[in-house]
Amino acid sequence: MTYIGTTFIVLAFLLFFKYTGSFDFxxxxxxxxLIPLPIKNAIFIFALVGLGxxxxxxxxxxxxxxxxxxxxxxxxxxxxxxxxxTGIYMIIRLFLDVLQPIPAWWxxxxxxxxxxxxxxxxxxxxxxxxxxxLLAYHSIENIGIILLGLxxxxxxxxxxxxxxxxxxxxAALFHTLNHAIFKSLLFLSAGSVINEMHxxxxxxxxxxxKYMPQTAMFFLIGSIAxxxxxxxxxxxxxxxxxxxxxxxxxxxxxxxxWIFVVAAGSLAITGGLALACFVKAFGTxxxxxxxxxxxxxxxxxxxxxxxxxxxxxxxxLLFGIFSGPVTILxxxxxxxxTIFQNVTSxxxxxxxxxxxxxxxxxxxxAPVLFGFLVIAIFLTxxxxxxxxxxxQKVTIGGTWDCGxxxxxxxxxxxxxxxxSIILIFKNVLKPSIQHEIEYRDDESRYLPKSREVTLxxxxxxxxxxxxxxxxxxxELSLRAxxxxxxxxxxxxxxxxxxxxxxxxxxx
Length: 507
Description:
2 domains
């Protein structure tokens, strides 16, 4: 995928050079009128494929879930938090700065790809039991959310709505920043668990909150942030993305409006599934009873690791509480683009840190939400501890176990938790169940020795994209090998034809 992505990026920049005579962005931007529209469309497609591969946009994402489990956790944090964002940076730079003006279908295409990446990314994350592969698919999901804001910005500016375009770009940049924070926190927390458990398989975890309480708290904060729950930062960047999409639904018409409707639905479903996925991840990792003997040997992470996780957890909270000023700052950065220099902002922040969008279109106050949650937690704790249980005697005893010992087999597993959701989306995920039964030699087949049930899912991008492409390339290769006929006269003819084509192109 590295070679494929690089090839398309090089092709895009070679087209730049052919029509502008330079690889310098400033020169290309000054001479962009020299590039014919069909060539600009080709540059868009080449750049989107190449940079989309670097950013892990579906269906060019297949390298990321394989790379994260193989990389050390701190490298995964940098890979997800920083490296894949370079592709997003280049998409913003090319499409909102260098190649302006652009047709509206560019933005709608990015918006559609964002919807697909967000929804499929979280669906495949739900099917994963390797904690780092799960987080890798959530990176793909969040890249899709970023593209929803960016695609909205491209569409709005193409249709003559620069203020809404500025709002969309601010939403994309805000979620880019937030994702770098909470995803790095999650990878560092997962790395701490893997360092103690020596495996990434969540089915072998369980009960780690007793042995790694601080790591569990940091993982929980990261889970809340990535699930877009207040008062953490992920909620406010997704809220801003929602407001951008709602503006498109309210102001656009015909087919463009329906694409925004689909994008809003995709983002809503993605948010719900992300919450379910991290209930699975946190529950199977830190709660219930241990599922392997290795859990009893686990201990809390080193102080330096906890300081790193704690810093990122604190940033997740601060960027949520002060989301309004952060968005204002990101809009000021966005105005460094020529197309946004004299554009009126739709975002304002009141003296009470109320976050307003579009002259009363929507508003939210992060400090009020934070204060309300603190008060709600305090009141709930007070009522339960001092009112409900005031005159009650609490007796601690063993769990009723139907006369048998409690074992890990009685707990819900990551597979069992996700199974019902997978079946709901069975037309997309294509689940399959395999039963393996081992019978005793001396007993009836009705009393098997062991049963093993394997639940697996298919990959639609492999079935409908990569395998057909592989088949096509294989068939073309079989035909192309006939060129090697062993006839020297044929080889001389090939050279002559190649020279003639080269001279024709130069002239």
